[in-house]
Amino acid sequence: MQDSITKTTTLKSSIDKVWDAIIDHEKFGEWFKVKLYEPFEEGEVTTGHITYPGYEHFKWESLTRSIQPKTYFAFIWYHDNIEVEPGTPRLQTLVEFKLKPEGTGTQLTIIESGFASFPPEAGRQAFESNEGGWQEQLRNIEVFVGG
């Protein structure tokens, strides 16, 4: 099973604008379709719920691992919506956002890794779902930042 998903795009917006859309929890929520109750702060948990139609019953919980202004943001994303056998360790992936200048725009790379630690069927399902989900999220942030 594949362990990670990597998606890269070049946005026509400045690093400042892209960074703000990622690190500001309210703006992140607008394009990601999630209502977050707390800001992203290193070492802190952020909770909320998904607002994407059909997934509103899914809760959001993440633990911010690293914030390196305008270059890197990473969090542990807990997958508590996936049913597993009792006693199975909590399912989690690492989500990373990497930004770098690309001409007058910004190259954005999103990596989600850790699927290989899931039970096989759960890992396959989560990987397949998130593979398409990240493609959609790239389109969402592109629209949000204006290019």
Automatic annotation (TrEMBL):
It comes from the Bacteria. Pfam families: AHSA1. InterPro entries: ASHA1/2-like_C (IPR013538), START-like_dom_sf (IPR023393). The keyword Methyltransferase applies. Keywords: Methyltransferase, Transferase. SUPFAM superfamilies: Bet v1-like. GO terms for molecular function: methyltransferase activity. Residues 13-145 form the Activator of Hsp90 ATPase homologue 1/2-like C-terminal domain. Gene3D superfamilies: 3.30.530.20. GO terms for biological process: methylation. Belongs to the AHA1 family. This is Vanillate O-demethylase oxidoreductase VanB. It comes from Henriciella algicola.
